[in-house]
Amino acid sequence: MYPARIIPELARQGWQAHGLALEGSWVAESFVEAGITPLTVPSRGRALWRVGRILAYLKVHEIRVLHCHKSSDLRLGALLATLRPELRLFFTDHMGVTRPKKDPYHRWAYGRLTRLFSISETTRARNLRAFPLRPERIRRLYLGIDPSPYVAGLAADERRALRAELGVPEGAVAIGLPGRITPGKGQAVWVEALARLVEARPTLAWHGVLIGGLGAGEGSNEVFVAKLRERVAALGLTERVSFAGFRGDLPRCLAALDIVCVPSRNEAFGLTVIEAMAAARPVVGADSGAIPELLDATAGRLVAPEDPEAWAEALGELAADTAMQHRLGQAGRARVLAAFTLETHIRALVGEYAGEPAA
Questions:
Q1: What is the mean pLDDT of residues 227-233?
Q2: Which domains are delineated in the chain?
Q3: CA distance 7 to 171
Q4: pLDDT tens for residues 277-316?
Q5: Distance between CA 59 and CA 93 in Å, rounded?
Q6: HSE, side-chain direction, 13 A CA sphere, residue 74
Q7: How far apart are the first and last CA of the chain?
Q8: What residue stretches are annotated with the Glycosyltransferase subfamily 4-like N-terminal domain (predicted)?
Q9: pTM of the full structure
Q10: Which carries the bigger pLDDT value, residue 12 or residue 204?
Q11: Which of the residue ranges 66-70, 92-96, 210-214 would you say has the lowest mean pLDDT?
């Protein structure tokens, strides 16, 4: 959903964006919600048959830049760039590939790229090994967010009501974990850490909040959700852990929490990390993937992703010290404003679109 997120900022900086999407897809709908009517095709295969129509669309609208965000879309992008060599073709790898892509097809497709963007140094290192491109054609470009919805504080009454809605008792430290509820996101280790926190600090008042869809339609693993609920009950944490479900108001929810956890084992970037930091929340994150690039000791704590004892220790330290929570939260928000805003991201992106040398 990245393209629709950046369209308003592209427009604000003077660029006119167009979209190409599958008919009836969420991506097509997101383009419309962002204010543009996309060109649509019934399938990726049919798009190849309609390449003449797409080329005509590019010519009529004087489009000079193509930007793909899925490797399955690059086949069409590379074909268009082959047929119209003046096009500048970009591809963002949002995951970080793990298998080499140096066969004849990939050499042809990726050879048409003006630039490949990696969303972290971690994924760039993987991409350098995987893609048939010279290092200078693979650039790290961090993602960014609009920090304005991530308020550093809520009105007292609003915060109290929202915390109650999330299941947080009065006076408890709210320890949240937002994100898709799937094995790779680390919720299982987090639950084990909370059980150890009870043992280590029996007098500490806290409440855990899982924020994320509970069904497959909302991106979560239903079997894993059920097992997680069973484990919470087995550990005697039913009254101390809430399953809040999907929330469309995540910025407000983050501001209602006291500590935000991101225990994902292999984040390609860590959008939740900078969202929590933008909300001035201290973060406890996994010391793996790209998270250490975003988070340091000035804004939170890094912990081994598979070590519940270490997680319990870090959570206990933060939960018992409100002054530290505030200090780390303010430092995190300042870091986001300095390095991870959507405006900063778009300025770097359009500089590449325009062919400007990297700073």
A1: 97
A2: 2-144+342-353 (3.40.50.2000), 156-339 (3.40.50.2000)
A3: 41
A4: 999 999 999 999 999 999 999 999 999 999 999 999 999 9
A5: 27
A6: 21
A7: 27
A8: 5-148
A9: 0.91
A10: 204
A11: 92-96
328 Cβ neighbours under 8 A, 6+ residues apart: 282, 283, 298, 299, 300, 318
Residue 357 pLDDT: 64
Cα 311 from Cα 304, distance rounded (Å): 8
Sort strands 20-22 and 300-303 into parallel, antiparallel or unpaired.
Answer: unpaired
Using left for φ > 0, alpha for ψ between -120 and 50, and beta otherwise, residue 294 falls in alpha
Tokens 């799937």 correspond to what residue? 182
Q: What type of residue is 133? A: L
Alpha carbon distances (Å) from 50 to 39, 54, 135: 11, 6, 34
C-alpha to C-alpha distances, 307 to 269, 287, 310, nearest whole angstrom: 21, 11, 5
Tens of pLDDT, residue by residue over 41-81, are 999 888 999 999 999 999 999 999 999 999 899 999 999 99
> In which residue are the tokens 């990939």 written?
106
Q: What is the Cα–Cα distance from 286 to 70, expressed in whole angstroms?
A: 26
User: Which amino acid does the sequence have at 260?
Assistant: V
Q: Which residue has the tokens 């004892």?
A: 309
